[in-house]
Write a structure and sequence with these properties.
two-stranded antiparallel ribbon, alpha/beta, about 240 residues, single chain
Length: about 240
């Protein structure tokens, strides 16, 4: 696999061990052009970077070495992990994002992403459930890679969890739907909520889950299908 190197100075001075790498976090660039995105990721003033960037044509550019801690995740949580920069590899996909005209991901782009993720999975023994989106680990702040990202396709390559459409075995009647849903989310790894107490901002966590697993219904409401998907993924 051909990978071009384009150095970014935006990483921590302390390196890490191979065993520290537990996750791959997928982002979109959310800027108007590839050139603008790369310039920002290389500019010390902005203090952001990634390990890899994949452009619309599927070309892979490495910007920070795997052993170095790139600044891509920011304030984040997943299961017992806080601020996931030190435990993850960050991959940026060139896409204008919701602010500038959210695009469908190109087939060549996703094909390169899958090849890269399979390589990283093998190299660092990354569990399939540890391929996540930025919005999964930072649901209050981020919405990328967004509802157009093909999580279902990645799951067919053992990259990320998914579910089967047949929910017949999941019972239809649940008591305390919101509590059950958030219990399921906590089992999956989502954070930033209190299981027993609802806040308005919890809708962002619900939308994050829906962007990942129910992209055609990003409502922020816990409907029957949203609940059943969460139940399937944790039982």
């Amino acid at each position: 696999m051909k990978i071009k190197f384009d150095y970014s100075p935006n990483f921590s001075s302390k390196t890490r061990h191979r065993k520290d790498i537990k996750f791959v976090i997928i982002h979109y660039t959310g800027m108007q052009s590839e050139i603008e995105s790369i310039n920002r990721l290389k500019n010390p003033k902005f203090k952001v970077s990634c390990h890899y960037l994949i452009n619309r044509q599927g070309k892979i550019i490495q910007m920070v070495k795997d052993k170095d801690i790139a600044w891509h995740a920011g304030k984040s949580r997943w299961k017992k992990y806080f601020n996931l920069n030190k435990n993850s590899i960050g991959i940026e996909l060139v896409n204008k994002g919701h602010k500038y005209g959210y695009q469908s991901y190109q087939k060549r782009q996703i094909k390169s992403l899958i090849r890269l993720c399979k390589l990283l999975q093998k190299k660092y023994s990354i569990k399939k459930e540890n391929f996540l989106g930025h919005s999964d680990i930072s649901p209050h702040r981020k919405i990328d890679p967004g509802e157009k990202f093909p999580w279902k396709e990645l799951s067919t390559h053992s990259l990320g969890k998914w579910y089967v459409e047949d929910f017949n075995y999941v019972r239809d009647s649940f008591k305390k739907i919101d509590i059950l849903f958030f219990k399921n989310l906590k089992k999956l790894g989502y954070r930033y909520f209190n299981i027993a107490k609802r806040k308005t901002i919890d809708k962002k966590v619900i939308r994050s889950f829906q962007r990942h697993y129910l992209p055609n219904r990003v409502t922020g409401k816990i409907d029957k299908k949203t609940l059943k998907i969460s139940h399937f993924l944790t039982h």
